[in-house]
Design brief:
heterodimer, A: 694 residues, alpha+beta, 5-stranded antiparallel beta sheet, 22 helices, 15% strand, B: alpha/beta, 4-stranded parallel beta sheet
Chain lengths: 694, 368
């Protein structure tokens, strides 16, 4: 049975969720500006998959801190997976609107260090930001040595390739070349007849009218001057041309683009189509290239060329060249216009490249110690290194061309220092038994609890490392122990050890929030067991409106997916989850609390989700059983509690049904009999037996 | 004095400071408990079922029992409303006489004098601008703090700092701390209620518990949103069931009790506590609507709270709810004057239209 459960794809969903607690997983930023994390789900699926594949924990650590540095294999999917792991570093709460960018970066790094310290080492490293740690041997210098590693790391969203994307892309490219060729052929036909004299060149930044666009003569337009727009802001800019020889003109634009950022071209108010649709290799002047944008018809006198755009490439010059000759210009220009439109449409339907919340090396640097944590008051430069207390002998300077995350992981998972493994082994124990051998799983420092069974923790840790850091093997070892297999009914040790510190019985455990919801869905038969997949469409706006929240609530109540796949919107997590101690997703949580509060009861009594599930179960058992009340109650007990009811319980249920019916119904349109059964099932779902494991 | 080594394998000896500290608090606490035992008696009797919400005494005799916190979202302009700066009048239109700070929200203009005249109010002479027509009548009931400084120029960071004390990380809000420290005096209502909260700029975190137990979470009256829910539509979640009568729910409760008793399991305090939580929830379900039922309020009271005027109705109703919650023993109540004005994204956020906007806000939040 243990093998069957460990091999189930749902194992990763349950145990991966434990890890998601530790890494403060969420699908939105929370805090001041609650931006949606569109791509966080890839990391969530990565974690579930890692648990299912029993990825050795040392590799799991490595991928989460430095996966991008390993992602140099020939297998694009493997590279993608490795980079996805570094989502770990990106998920923290950020004060998005912080105007002091130096402080903002320092806060982001602080959050990363705090999370990595608690998650992997069980150490509160964050304390050393402002002062030497008060209790553990972590001087401020160590903190800024680590901070240098993360100041050298960038967490901008990344675009990467998967084999599925590449397949779609190559099919797309093949078709694209056909459409492109048609366009190019027509352009060439026209270009063959370019006038030598009628050439008008304009500097892009010398537009006649325009709003918002940036004129850059400094960085991207050094010595040439460009017109650009670094943010999506609805640009419009216009050029007037005085034309003496009307007719067909070829349009060329000289620009630099590292990404496709099209501009729509209008001639005398009429839309011609997208221009600036190519990638020239970069944003800088060295990448400036002339691109033939096709041909337009101009009249005598004043003509206005108008461009509109969102974010924009860096435009240097425009050139209009008259086309003359015996070819049927008007017809060719029309054909080109149609072909160009087709091309634009085709390009706009290009397969989107997957975007990742992931880390990669940025500008490699050491940082100065911030005196009292204040970024405006800097002390000595501290070269990047690891904690001096743990290993001071062979500290080598970190590479100058890499952040040092890879070396950080080497140090974290060095088999001769067992802290990383101990912290994980203690977590796994805690998730099985409800509390760890060290009851403060995120703090193994002086202020943390001491282990109740130090030798056992050491033994399991050594075994764990010997077994190649296999979490599934650790599960097996724990589950096959007599400690795990004890009953909760035994009372023999009550006097000697009332707190059950010595594990003489199993403690009664309440189901976690996810298990409560998923169990109800499983019994009602509505549970959708699909594994993985993208985020369920929720809210995608910055400022959550009441309408956004309502939509999200609807997903929570109506989605049949497992709870692990419901969106985790910081500050707006489904209240059924938060009521049942789902962790605050803004900070690492190694151990959830298990509270009993009246608001849980209110939710159980009145929530649409619970009452709906009761009604679905009532309908299902009505269809499945005969007319006999006893049989139906039997069936219910079997499905909800996996046992048959006692005589007394059958009588209680029957009495409930009779009394319920005698009270009359709240609403005439519902069948009173069905309402009574639903209400009985509702009560059984609320019972202690349903949500406590014994 | 010797300090124990950091990684000492034996438990550390108690330091002198700790010892003195514990003694002081211990003796002080004991004495205080004795003095106030009588006051606490009523609450003590129901303490067992309250657990973490049982009323507790602070380290010194309290002078207030409850807090009503009016949050004017967006940021009222203190120099135009309460904080008279004569030099602003003198130097109107001149550039800033000191260096700009390193970090700004937007380009800063020149100095601007207050839009309204200031005059002393009440016996104490607290300065208020002339926009305040009704507030001067209670001037002597007010305490003005003029020493407050900001550390964050953005709404989000500033809101978080104001509510939780921290602008960069998620921390417990002030109401949660009060609930955690003092418990509640009404076991049928939440200890901390936020009336018509917003969902932005910290949102739920502004009345959240962070690392404190979830029981101290501020309970929202009205779904948090942007804009927030109007007071007249504000309800608590899960208080009532459209398809079950109270009698039918009482029946469910009876069955739950029976099931717990007939359970073959050994007696367990955890399981009993859960049944008790259902009974408490059932009582809350009737207590909350009673507190929020204002049909019994006289016309005099309605007028006093501006309920007869569409201009003041929304804010007035929030205030009336707050008073009724306070009278029912809720420890910490937050009122949120938050919404959009035609030309402003947030109620009191008048970057421009200061004259119109502040005039409208003052009119909406005060009445004779």
């Amino acid at each position: 049975m243990i093998d069957r459960l460990l091999d189930s794809p749902h194992y990763g969903e349950r145990w991966g969720r434990h890890w998601l607690d530790v890494v403060r997983y969420a699908d939105s930023n929370g805090a001041d500006e609650n931006y949606f994390h569109d791509n966080a789900y890839r990391y969530r699926n990565y974690v579930i998959d890692a648990f299912n594949r029993d990825l050795p924990y040392d590799q799991f650590v490595r991928q989460q801190l430095a996966g991008d540095l390993l992602a140099k294999t020939d297998d694009v999917d493997q590279n993608f997976r490795l980079a996805t792991g570094t989502g770990f570093l990106t998920l923290g709460v950020k004060i998005i609107a912080e105007k002091d960018l130096v402080k903002k970066q320092a806060d982001i790094v602080d959050e990363q260090i705090d999370t990595l310290g608690k998650a992997f080492l069980g150490l509160t490293l964050g304390c050393a930001r402002c002062h030497d740690h008060k209790f553990d041997p972590i001087p401020t210098a160590d903190y800024y040595a680590l901070a240098g590693i993360f100041h050298s790391t960038s967490i901008q969203d990344r675009k990467l390739e998967t084999s599925e994307y590449l397949e779609r892309k190559s099919a797309y490219d093949e078709k694209l070349s056909i459409v492109q060729n048609r366009c190019d052929k027509l352009k060439a036909e026209l270009s063959a007849h370019l006038s030598k004299e009628e050439i008008i060149t304009r500097e892009a930044e010398a537009f006649d009218r325009g709003n918002k666009v940036v004129i850059d003569t400094d960085k991207y337009g050094a010595e040439i001057g460009v017109v650009a727009s670094y943010i999506d802001q609805g640009n419009e800019f216009e050029y007037d041309f005085d034309i003496t020889k009307p007719g067909v003109y070829q349009v060329e634009i000289r620009y630099a683009a590292a990404m496709i950022r099209p501009c729509q071209l209008f001639v005398n108010g009429e839309l011609v189509g997208d221009t600036v649709t190519e990638i020239t290799g970069g944003w800088y002047p060295a990448n400036q290239k002339w691109v033939n944008e096709g041909a337009i018809t101009l009249r005598e006198g004043k003509n206005t060329l108008r461009f509109t755009s969102g974010t924009m490439a860096h435009l240097d010059k425009l050139r209009l060249t008259r086309i003359e000759g015996e070819i049927d210009l008007i017809a060719t220009v029309e054909q080109l216009k149609v072909a160009k439109q087709e091309l634009d449409e085709f390009i706009s339907a290009a397969p989107p490249q997957p975007v990742l919340m992931a880390a990669q090396d940025g500008m490699v640097q050491d940082v100065k110690i911030h005196l009292r944590g204040d970024h405006n008051s800097l002390g000595e430069l501290e070269p990047r290194h690891f904690l001096s207390a743990v290993d001071s002998k062979d500290l080598k300077p970190l590479p100058q061309d890499e952040s040092g995350r890879s070396e950080l992981v080497d140090w974290l998972v060095k088999p001769d220092h067992p802290l990383t493994a101990r912290v994980l082994v203690n977590r796994i124990w805690g998730w099985h038994f409800g509390k760890g051998l060290v009851t403060t799983p995120d703090n193994f420092g002086t202020m943390g609890a001491r282990p109740s069974h130090p030798e056992l923790l050491d033994y399991l840790t050594v075994q764990f490392i010997k077994e190649d850091w296999s979490i599934k093997k650790l599960h097996r070892q724990i589950l096959l122990s007599s400690t795990w297999q004890m009953t909760s009914d035994y009372t023999g040790g009550q006097e000697a050890d009332p707190g059950n510190e010595l594990y003489w019985k199993t403690n009664i455990k309440r189901l976690e929030a996810e298990a409560i919801r998923d169990s109800m869905l499983a019994i009602s038969g509505e549970l959708d067991r699909t594994v993985g997949g993208p985020i369920l469409a929720g809210i995608a706006s910055k400022n959550l409106s009441a309408e956004d929240i309502r939509k999200n609530q609807e997903i929570y109540v109506t989605s049949p997916r497992r709870t692990v796949y419901l969106p985790v919107i910081r500050t707006m997590v489904y209240d059924m989850l938060t009521l049942y101690d789902f962790p605050n997703s803004s900070a690492p949580t190694g151990q959830r609390s298990s509270t009993t509060v009246p608001t849980q009861a209110l939710m159980m009594m009145n929530s649409e989700f619970v009452t709906n599930q009761a009604r679905v179960i009532a309908e299902k058992t009505r269809l499945a059983s005969t007319e006999s009340k006893d049989e139906r109650i039997n069936l219910l007990y079997e499905q909800l509690f996996a046992r048959r009811p006692t005589e007394e319980e059958i009588d209680q249920s029957k009495e409930f049904l009779a009394e319920f019916l005698s009270l009359g119904s709240v609403n005439e349109i519902f069948d009173p009999e069905q309402e009574a059964w639903s209400s009985l099932i509702h009560t059984l779902l609320m019972s202690n037996e349903f949500i406590y494991l014994r | 004095m010797k300090v124990a080594p950091v990684f000492s394998p034996v438990s550390q000896p108690i330091s002198r400071r700790t010892l003195l500290n514990r003694m002081a608090v211990g003796f002080g606490g004991l004495a205080l408990n004795g003095m106030l035992a009588e006051q606490l008696f009523a609450a003590e009797s129901s303490k067992s079922s309250l657990g973490p919400l049982a009323p507790r005494m602070p380290h010194h005799p309290p002078r207030v029992k409850r807090v009503i916190f009016m949050f004017m979202s967006g940021g009222p302009s203190h120099v135009d409303l309460f904080d008279h700066k004569p030099l602003l009048e003198r130097d109107d239109g001149k550039p800033l006489p000191f260096a700009e700070r390193g970090v700004q929200f937007a380009e800063r203009g020149n100095l601007m004098k207050p839009l309204w005249k200031f005059r002393p109010t009440g016996q104490s002479g607290i300065p208020m601008c002339e926009l305040w027509q009704h507030l001067p009548k209670v001037a002597d009931e007010l305490c003005m703090i003029h020493s407050l400084c900001e550390t964050n120029v953005s709404h989000g960071g500033a809101c978080m700092k104001l509510h939780t004390g921290n602008e960069a990380f998620v921390r417990p809000s002030v109401g949660s701390w009060v609930s955690y420290g003092l418990g509640t005096e009404n076991n049928n209502l939440p200890s901390f209620i936020s009336i018509c909260p917003q969902s932005i700029h910290g949102g739920v975190d502004n009345y959240g518990t962070s690392f404190l137990p979830s029981i101290h979470q501020g309970v929202a009256l009205g779904t948090p949103g942007y804009p927030n829910t109007p007071a007249k539509d504000a309800k608590f979640d899960y208080m009532g069931n459209s398809r079950l009568s109270l009698d039918q729910q009482a029946l469910q409760l009876k069955l739950l009790r029976q099931m717990n008793k007939s359970n073959a399991a050994p007696h367990d305090a955890l399981l009993d506590a859960r049944i008790q939580s259902f009974e408490l929830a059932f009582r809350m379900q009737t207590a909350a609507p009673e507190v929020m039922d204002i049909s019994g309020e006289s016309n005099v009271v309605r007028k006093l709270y501006g309920l007869d005027d569409p201009m003041t109705e929304n804010f007035g109703l929030q205030c009336l709810y707050a008073r009724r919650f306070a009278e029912a023993g809720v420890r910490f109540i937050q009122i949120n004057h938050a919404g959009k004005l035609p030309k402003t994204n947030e109620q009191w956020d008048q970057h421009n239209y200061l004259e119109e906007g502040h005039a409208e806000n003052v009119a909406k939040s005060t009445s004779p």
